[in-house]
Queue: 3 jobs
Job 1
Amino acid sequence: MATHGKPSDNDFDSDQFRELGYRTIDLIADYYEGIDDRSVYVQANPEDIVAAFDESLPEEGTDPELILDAVEEFVIPYATHNPSARYFGFVMGSGTPLAPLADAIAATVNMNTGGWHPAPSGTEIERRCTQWLAEAVGYPSDTGGLLTSGGTMANFTALLTAFRERTDFETTGPGLQETDRPRYTLYVADHEGHSSVVRVADMLNLGRNAVQRVPSHDDFTIDVAALEQMLDADQANGDEPFCVIGQAGSINVSAIDPLDALADVCAERDLWFHVDGACGAVGAMVPEFKSRYDGMERANSVTLDPHKWLFIPYECGAVLIRNQDLLAKAFAMDASYLRGSIGETPEEFDYYEFGPQMSRGFRALKLWMTLKHYGLEGYRALLRKSVDCAEHLDTLARNHDDFVTVQEPNLFIYSFRYVPGDLQAALADPPAVPLARVHQYLDELNQRIVDEVVQSGLAFLTTTSIHDRRTLRMSICSHRTTIEDIETVFDSLAETGARIDEEWREKASLPV
Ligand SMILES: Cc1ncc(COP(=O)(O)O)c(C=O)c1O
């Protein structure tokens, strides 16, 4: 029997719960209010962070107020502040403020969306979300699909489905134990194809060398003629190609492959066409960008991550699979204890039959609430703002003597290099300096610029490698970032570059 004011003797009473809750809400509200003034990267020694959490497993319980004290004292200060407007690392959505409330509610009802009966509203909300996402980007909205922990698991779900659908190899039965088989191959652009594809090939035990890297053009998009030649050669060699992956917004330069042409190749050869739009597929929501994605609607599957450019907090990936029955072919399994709750009507379907997870959280709630909150128009405005910021960054880089560009601005990820003007001239006149030494110097210089700006706390960004050269990279994946933030960070990169170059140049035995 529940005690008055609390669900059981083992829970808080309502007053205590409210007090803890109000304190937590204050903490969250203060956090958002002060986010602009925080160092984006933690200002503490790693040893201090390790020491702060170096405690033994508690034998006795602790007062929740003290636990919240520890959160305030250590967890928040020792975080990297992805919600900052000046966070440009990796591809991390900034976190929309309705989502922490949604997550609290999802944890409260604690539905397991693995099955319809344990989660009727949770299942329906997830189904609605995948259909809304499809509709938003111009993919057929009667699609199958599901939410995943992220892009890697979305790609995994799509590629396993592709593999089971397009090859004769019976992986569910004999699995690896069957030995006489061809090499099953999949194809993705060489420079920008995402590493998660290699990880998935590995997880599927296809071997990492199943991933065939197709040459790309100067704009980093896949060379379709080269793809066709590779397919011909591999088939002639006895390999069994089963899937081509097009990028819709690539990891370094936001490149979008010619999706329509890839769809043609796949249709002609009966290959599965997957679009990895983890970063950029949602750009298709914006009418003036839409034509760049022509052909995405023909894909068998699309990966699209709300925890990236829809700014939903972790974790929230999504995969759309045109034919839901094929997901069942890939994932359905039988277990009597699960059958116990199986639905009687077509509406009552169980996500555990359509994806890799059995137990699944209610991650759809934060997406559903945020999609309703902004609406398509609100989201379009935010996406346009990110693209404007990337274009502005490109203009700043082009107009500055000490930067060189490596790409046209596409969506929201932009890479560029710090190269002092005189070294640009030296590179154009190779005999003047040993080229290898200049390149090494510039690689180290670009890395050091990023390290120092990150350590200063002003901004978080990363470097990447573009055609084997260390390059600055900014992923403008925050709904909070403004043109002023871009200018502030760009100025800091320029000043830091000039200062380090001045300090280093003579020691590097390069012309001063
Ligand atoms: C193009 C692309 N695909 C897949 C992924 C993997 O996504 P996740 O990190 O959510 O697993 C990423 C991550 O940045 C990506 O950029």
Job 2
Amino acid sequence: MHELPECAISACRPYFREARGDFVVRKEFGYSWKVYGAGIEIHIADYLSDAPDDVLSDFCDMVCRRAKGQRCPEPPSYLDHIRSDRYIVDNRPTYIRRSRNLLRSACGEVAYLHDSVQRLLDSGLLTESDISNSYMSWTRRDNVRRVGFCSTMFRVVGISSRLDSDDVPDFVRDYVVYHECLHLRQGYRPSRRVHDAQFRSWERLFPQWREAESVLRRLGTA
Ligand SMILES: [Zn+2]
């Protein structure tokens, strides 16, 4: 893998005498560090390999502070970069390629995910801005416990192919799609609770949420 550039290494020098690191291939974005003697070794997922110098040096500054045990939030330059349409459009194809469980199609055997999205838009539960620059697909595996997931970083929603079935009513699919699209509305916000009170209050706006959850529970135990 390729080494971190000089701007990243020099951002570590105020904290560590020696620094080295590289970009590594990961499906999910992440990073790790190891402190050795007076030095630090940092591994960052390669999604950041094209980031501007200031983003990388601010990011490494954060990693070093955390390695020193300081509480340090994600730097604004990093958050702006990650949340930009450019970053998402450039990196999402890689994320999708690495997500082996994605069917890479919103069109299932019996249901089309964008029909659910359209109903949610028509009813006013979702707005166009919630789902802007997003990607939606069925999964390959028919997981019954994890019926959906959302990568807020890459704005990708996956819905379990277990729900692509005649025995699942439309409103249940709509409810699961709605839940995942609410994560898109929240956006990328690391180190914050995802299912917070705000999220739950949005979720309860879905008229048949109780029935939908009981259908999902039955699927999970069938
Ligand atoms: Zn969720």
Job 3
Amino acid sequence: MVARSYTVAFEGVEARSVEVQCALSPGVPAFSIVGLPDKAVSEARDRVRAALAAMAIALPAKKVTINLSPADLPKEGSHFDLPIALALLAAIGVIPAEEIEGTMALGELSLDGSLVPVIGALPAAVAAADSERALVCPSACGAEAAWVGTAKVIAAATLASVIQHFTGQSPLSPAKPGEVTEDRTFRDLSDVKGQERAKRAMEIAAAGRHHFLMTGSPGSGKSMIAARMPSILPPLTPSEALETSMIHSLAGLIDEGGISRSRPFRDPHHTASMASIVGGGRGAKPGEVSLAHNGVLFLDELPEFSRPVLETLRQPIETGEVVVARANAHVRYPCRFMLIAAANPCRCGYLADASRACAKAPICGEDYLGRISGPLLDRFDLRLEVPAVSIADLDMAPSGEASASVAERVRHARERQANRYKDAQGLHLNADAEGQTLNEVAAPDPEGRDLLAKAADRFGLSARGYHRVLRVARTIADLAGEEHVRKPHVAEALSYRITTMRID
Ligand SMILES: Nc1ncnc2c1ncn2[C@@H]1O[C@H](COP(=O)(O)OP(=O)(O)O)[C@@H](O)[C@H]1O
Ligand SMILES: [Mg+2]
């Protein structure tokens, strides 16, 4: 007889259904697992055997074969322990086979039979709901899995309590979803003194999800300003929160099952490896770009990141999706983020200050910023040189606007965009508008068009640059609550494109 239980194998945020079959056959006692298991899955054998022994359940003196089907799908991770144990327990008649047929399971076993939390409970619960099964998982994962709402989630602390549940000795009640958390303890934009243009650019970036690059000497407040982006962004919508949490679940970042409605803000250090930024490595984990999905990716000291990392970023920025290679497959993760980057003008940082600049100035500046390739630089709709703040300015009492009122304008501008694009597939914000749609929604008035043509002529604006100016102008008009893009909007948008850095 073949007993069956069900679990999932992860391919990016997709959880693919896996059938765990257990057959007992006469022969020399043995325990084998087939169906492309990785090392952690193969080791399940020893953990399952020990956990059963801890409950004084003896394996039969037969050949035990576990098959993970479909056989050509790679199986990674330790969450296969529980479904393997369940299939085995059904095969030897400890629990009724029909009970586990309607259940999906995931969880790691420790040698004493307790269940250890695993990553991916949230996508697994989505897969369970899709196949109309209940999900059995470790207690620590219950609150997270229960979030899906459409799947019944049974969370257990030990294998023994799972057995008692299925044999009807002591049924477990369904797990409850964790709390919705929303971190509102942001650092406020009003802490930043002066720097009005940078704050304005932050507002435009937030409203239209435009990528934003700041250059300027050290200590001018670039990192400080960028860190305040979450304070002016609207909270995640419920569907965005679920999408982002699925990725965080795979990275094991969901604390106590709580789903966060705060937009992620990820700021990896420039020494971070390729795998940690774009994803990959063991288990093809999501990288920082995907953890920033629906939120902000802040790359401070942009030219210091390794060249291959910077070049690899181009594709995900454009497509909102990253493809991570692993042993014999590719996995895809979503990564629609707002990129904020900051750079000093040169290595020592004092290019603009003749009294402090190093001997290599001004060549060093070109070398330094030259590390950011043209195509990457081109992805930034907004570019700004942030001047140093004077001591006199720093001495003033904070007079700037608080984040809350900026956030309110951003919210309105986003509402206008949601309205405008409500019938457009996959298009929500101005930064994603392209081609014909962009030409229609951002067509400037005659004076605006005239100004754009002159600027294109004088500064050699490329076709791509031209479209980026239009997108930003559309966002500026949305912030002003205006139906049509006019000359002042175009003029302001142009000012974020033409900097002394490079023009295109
Ligand atoms: N405009 C400003 N308003 C208030 N404090 C500032 C401002 N600019 C810089 N500072 C102070 O200087 C520190 C360094 O700024 P930082 O953001 O790290 O500069 P950068 O990233 O441009 O090198 C900040 O932590 C803050 O205390
Ligand atoms: Mg800094």
